[in-house]
Specification:
Blueprint (H helix, E strand, L loop, with lengths): L2 H19 L18 E2 L11 H5 L7 E2 L13 E5 L4 E5 L5 E3 L6 E7 L5 E6 L4 E6 L2 E6 L3 E5 L2
Antiparallel strand pairs: 1-8, 2-4, 3-4, 3-6, 5-10, 6-9, 7-8, 7-10
């Protein structure tokens, strides 16, 4: 097991524990219901099927973009879903029906779904299990470490 996968597994376990203990309004802090006020969907009603082995194996891995730590907000062009981890790595994706591998996002960071209203992006863990979805328009803080894949729309 690579160090990144081991770290992701450990952080995923920590995120599960954290989600049960904190209620600070972030995606990882909610264990059940639909989050209408945030645009993040975590309830069983919105659960997506897991990614297939082929989807994970053939996931697109674009070049990681590193942004400045000084950037306060995540600028995201219209039609895109963007995210940034605490380590400064970020992504900007727009192509539908494509499984993307996220660029090693670590810790808490921003998520901005600036796609056309109602467009839903889905996020998955290292094993391809659905974690949450985001309906556009949406801005949120997310604990990125256990999140490995995204389907923009």
């Amino acid at each position: 097991m690579t160090p990144r996968k081991l770290a992701a597994s450990l952080f995923a376990a920590a995120a599960i524990v954290t989600s049960a203990l904190t209620l600070d309004g972030t995606a990882a802090a909610h264990t059940g219901g639909e989050l209408r006020h945030t645009g993040l969907l975590t309830s069983e009603r919105f659960r997506q099927p897991p990614l297939t082995a082929a989807q994970m194996r053939n996931a697109v891995t674009p070049e990681a973009t590193r942004s400045s730590w000084a950037a306060d907000s995540l600028n995201c062009a219209y039609y895109y879903i963007c995210g940034k981890g605490a380590n400064g790595n970020r992504f900007d994706y727009t192509t539908c029906n494509t499984t993307y591998t996220l660029p090693n996002l670590v810790g808490w960071g921003s998520l901005h779904n600036n796609q056309t209203p109602g467009t839903r992006a889905h996020f998955y863990d290292v094993n391809g299990a659905w974690m949450f979805s985001s309906d556009a328009p949406d801005r949120n803080d997310v604990y990125w470490t256990p999140v490995w894949y995204v389907i923009a729309c």
